Amino acid sequence: MKLQVIALLGRRDYPTDGVEDYCTYLGKALKEQGVALQLVRVPWAERGWFYALRWLWQEARAWKGRWVLVQYTALSWSRRGFPIGLLPVLKILRGRKCRLGIVYHDASGYIGHRFIDRLRRKVQHQVMRLACQWADRGISPVPLESLDWLPVSERLKVSVIPVGPNIPEGTGEARWGREEKVVAVFGVTGGKNIPKEVADIAFATHKAAKRLRGEGKKLRLVVLGRGSEEAEAALRQSINGNEVSLSVLGLLPAEEITRTLSQADALLFVRGHVSGRRTTAIAGIACGLPVVGYSGKETGFPITEAGVLLVPQGDREALAEALTQVLTDENLWWELHQRSKEAQRRYFSWDAIAGRFGEVLKG
Question: Fewest CB atoms within 10 A around its CB: which of 36, 65, 76, 130?
């Protein structure tokens, strides 16, 4: 008989829901290991918290003794990043004698220096701590030493399992040797973050294009995914079209994302730092790409095993130099390409991730 597991989700995200995609891919991989993962969404955003909690109390009656993996992001369980509503959800699951697991897709509190930012972060950390204390197991996609909110006493119950790419695995075909070099940017953070990210992208690609021009080669920048259309005007204003040709593709089906990334030479990642919770960075690894980006406190194993060339957060000059090296140094490119393929097989494939979950659920 298959092990029956519930993946419990909160509010749906738009226009794409990465957490739902994650659970869908994970469920397919777990099925091969004799684990049936059922996705259940708590309808608090549509029906209100009173109805949702009463509904959950009734629904969870049948879950006694079963694993319930609560998928945590702050905005899954709140409208403005104060996820207090998660606490009664966990109380109900404990009251129904469920085996409780927490998957921390948001592994750190929201950044910011305003009073409201500090208050929001404090509330998030407290909710995350309580959730871990009440749970039987926790899952973090980033190294435990980067979780400054997690008490040392709770770390033994938390396993580090990176997220997957949320796209089909790429073919891993090598592009080296073509006259036009293609740099992919998968996802741009919207709103107030657009100017900084666009400036990073423009600076790095401009520097790389100048070096490539000296070798008789051209550079094409392909920007796709969430936020890309919102950032298009700023990108076209910042990118020198005479040196870098620009394609903005917007949201694409998963198979088309894989095809697009597999035809690139490198993935440029500037949405904060690269870590095991960044599905868009891991998508590049899944397609065998070298990944150029920033490092930070969440950067650690197994991301560092992949073909990543990372520089300190905010060092735009170093970012540009790293991208240039990847696009002009054939030996370096091949080394990073092979490391990404091997890391995908060992750590970031859904089979590898499901294997780690199987150890947790059956342990």
Answer: 65
Q: How far is CA 273 from CA 76, 181, 185, 187, 221, in A?
A: 22, 24, 14, 13, 20
Q: What is the pLDDT of residue 327?
A: 96
Evaluate whether 262 touches 168 at the Cβ level (below 8 Å).
Answer: no
Residue pLDDT, tens place only, 244-276? 999 999 999 999 999 999 999 999 999 999 999
Say if strands 158-160 and 180-186 run parallel, antiparallel, or are unpaired. unpaired
- Examine residue 15 and say whether the peptide bond preceding it is cis (omega within 30 degrees of 0): yes
Q: Decide if 65 contacts 94 (C-beta within 8 A).
A: no
Q: Are 105 and 83 in contact (CB under 8 A)?
A: no
Report how far apart, in Å, the C-alpha atoms of 203 and of each of 8, 95, 238, 285 are. 42, 54, 9, 23
CA dist., res. 268 & res. 238, Å (int): 16
For the chain, the average pLDDT equals 94
Tokens of 136: 């039987």
pLDDT in tens, 146-185: 999 999 989 999 999 999 999 998 765 656 667 899 999 9
Amino acid at residue number 157: K
Q: Where are the beta strands (DSSP E) in 53-186?
A: 67-72, 99-104, 137-140, 158-160, 180-186
**DSSP structure string for 245-274:** EEEEEES--HHHHHHHHHT-SEEEEEEEE-
Confidence of residue 324 (pLDDT cuts 50, 70, 90): very high
Question: Residue 40: helix, strand or coil by DSSP?
Answer: strand
- Work out the angle between the directed axes of helices 194-214 and 316-328 (0-180°, nearest 10): 40
Per-residue 3-state assignment (H helix, E strand, C coil) for 222-248: EEECCCCCCCHHHHHHHCCCCCEEEEE
Helix (H, G, I), strand (E, B) or coil at 141: coil
- Beta-ladder partners of 223: 185, 248
